[in-house]
Design brief:
The structure is a single chain. By secondary structure, the protein is of the alpha/beta class. Helix content is 52%, strand content 9%. It folds into five domains: 169 residues, Rossmann fold, CATH 3.40.50; 62 residues, Helicase, Ruva Protein, domain 3, CATH 1.10.8; 117 residues, Up-down Bundle (Zinc Finger, Delta Prime, domain 3); 43 residues; 85 residues, DnaA, N-terminal domain (GMP Synthetase, Chain A, domain 3, 2-Layer Sandwich). The strands form three sheets. The protein has a five-stranded parallel sheet with strand order 2-3-4-1-5, covered by helices on one side. It has a three-stranded mixed sheet with strand order 8-9-10, covered by helices on one side. Strands 6-7 form a two-stranded parallel sheet. The structure holds zinc ion. Zinc ion binds next to helix 4.
Length: 546
């Protein structure tokens, strides 16, 4: 028997064979079983995920001599001809090369005649978005009043290019990219049939490289078998296709997040010397960042796509970076990817991207700068450990920011405004004291939070709940403190001053008198006039983000 590529040999033959498209196969099976068939179907999705296979299976289901049936036998003449692509009644047309109005007219002419031996005449038009406008219009006439024996199945990777009047006459199915785990499982299934030993890590590496396309994954497996024979290890996959291992991507990202410029560049150089595809590595890095972002939003969303090792890495690295910084990073790398595409020296652009990324991670946001300045003014030293809102990795760099600022304006220069509550080192549990100290640490530029906190009454704590009370007519300061961000800020401050993990409880008490805001609190809103801030703004010119 002649050699057949895996994608063809293991092409799904029944609805149940379809990998990763259960939502589509279930609906189609029901439609066939209940004989509620549309005249036209539109299958949408990226290439290599089973659109044409689904179309052929549907054609078999409709035209099998035992049909219409959910389980076409696959052995009758009709089924075999459809599978082989030479059925007279199932016409597969490539929209890219038959896109003219002439071809569509021909099709319409042809559609008038009854099928030669099957139940339906089925037109499968692949890449239907390639049809010209005139061809679409000609097709529309047939779609409006299709002969009862005619079914259309369209497939496209770009549905937005299909005439809306066509789309609206079709039942549309969106096929999804196939999760890496399912692809890896399918590759193992093929390996089992072919008596090939495929390391799980190798299967996963292929699946990752195929980016949700089953056909690509199968072709890669073909190539690997030709290259390595019957035993395929992860390294074979990485070497043959120039992929970088997931571990390396995680490692590189870790170094970037920890601002280790030289070691990060070393990873890049090693990969480059090993002949890895720089574009591929960049796109791996970006998709890893995307995973990180998704992970931060919904940790369990990636279970289907990511192996447990990577899950662990994501969990650890998600702690190191905030969302907006992450988004910035994705932007930066995506831009670098665009530049790399046409650049002869891709490594150079990659290097620059890494250095820039680390630099931008180290830039303090305006919030952070102002917060530090507030501390300076309060006479604290830069050696004091500060964890609020900043990732610990950046604190080294930021304390140098503070140091620079203190050099520019010697500490204790009499800027002290109000007498501050003395920082006592003993772990006093008195909630009033804790509150006063926490309150004093609310950054000056957070005027709303500060003013709202100023009118709160401290009530006796309840277990690990730190209770703040408001009088009934002070609802708006209460609402301000109740937002998740502000709550977190207060809780962090409480923990800082007391060393205890408090949960903030905010409550209304009828018997509380409204507190008046201390005068002068609003002065902090005018922070841009502050000479210290102005100095800092100059120092960070062009780098400050709000
Ligand atoms: Zn059949």
């Amino acid at each position: 028997m002649s050699y057949e590529v895996f994608a063809r040999k293991y092409r799904p033959q029944t609805f149940d064979d379809l990998v990763g498209q259960a939502h589509v196969s279930r609906t189609l099976k029901n439609a066939v079983a209940q004989n509620r068939l549309a005249h036209a179907y539109l299958f949408v999705g990226p290439r290599g995920i089973g659109k044409t296979s689904t179309a052929r299976i549907l054609a078999k289901a409709l035209n099998c001599v035992k049909g219409p049936t959910v389980n076409p036998d696959g052995t009758c003449d009709n089924c075999r001809e459809i599978a082989a692509g030479n059925s007279l009644d199932v016409l597969e047309i490539d929209g890219a090369s038959n896109n003219g109005v002439e071809q569509v007219r021909e099709l319409r002419e042809n559609a008038r005649y009854a099928p030669s031996k099957s139940r339906y005449k089925i037109y499968i038009i692949d890449e239907v978005h390639m049809l010209t406008a005139a061809a679409f219009n000609a097709l529309l006439k047939t779609l409006e009043e299709p002969p009862p024996h005619v079914k259309f199945i369209f497939a496209t990777t770009e549905p937005q290019k299909v005439l809306p009047t066509i789309v609206s006459r079709c039942q549309r199915f969106d096929l999804h990219r196939i999760p890496a785990k399912l692809i890896a499982g399918h590759l193992q299934f093929i390996a089992g049939k072919e008596k090939i030993t495929l390391e799980p890590a190798a299967a996963h590496a292929i699946a990752r490289g195929a980016e949700g396309g089953l056909r690509d994954a199968e072709s890669m497996l073909d190539q690997l078998v030709a290259f390595c024979g019957e035993k395929i290890a992860e390294n074979d996959v990485l070497n043959v296709f120039g992929f970088t291992s997931e571990q390396t991507v995680v490692d590189l990202m870790g170094k970037i997040l920890r601002s280790e410029t030289a070691p990060a560049l070393d990873v890049l150089y090693q990969q480059c010397e090993a002949g890895k595809d720089m574009m591929r590595l960049m796109s791996d890095l970006i998709s890893y960042l995307r995973d990180l972002l998704v992970f931060k939003a919904k940790p369990d969303a990636l279970q289907e796509d990511v192996d447990p090792e990577t899950q662990k890495a994501l969990a650890a690295q998600a702690e190191l970076i905030e969302n907006d910084r992450l988004l910035d990073l994705i932007d930066q790398f995506a831009q670098a990817e665009g530049r790399m595409k046409w650049a002869p020296n891709k490594k150079l652009h990659f290097e620059v991207a890494i250095i820039k990324a680390i630099q931008s991670l180290n830039q303090a946001t305006l919030d952070e700068v102002i917060e530090r300045l507030g501390e300076l003014r309060d006479g604290k030293t830069s050696t004091e450990k500060k964890t609020l809102a900043a990732a610990p990795e950046r604190s080294a760099k930021q304390s140098s920011v503070v140091a620079a600022v203190s050099a520019a304006s010697p500490a204790g220069n009499g800027e002290q405004k109000a007498p501050r509550v003395a920082e006592s080192a003993n772990g006093d549990d008195d909630v009033e004291k804790i509150w006063r100290r926490a309150f004093s640490k609310i950054p000056n530029q957070k005027a709303f939070v500060r003013n709202s906190a100023a009118v709160a009454h401290v009530l006796p704590s309840e277990g690990r709940h730190f209770v703040l009370g408001f009088s009934p007519d002070q609802k708006s300061p209460m609402d301000i403190l109740s937002t998740a961000t502000n709550r977190k800020l207060i809780e962090t401050l409480l923990r800082e001053v007391s060393g205890k993990d408090w949960t903030l409880k905010i409550t209304v008490r009828e018997n509380l008198l409204p507190k008046v805001q201390p005068a002068g609190e609003n002065a902090s809103e005018n922070y841009t006039d502050d000479p210290l801030i102005r100095e800092a703004l100059q120092m960070f010119k062009g780098h400050i983000r709000s």
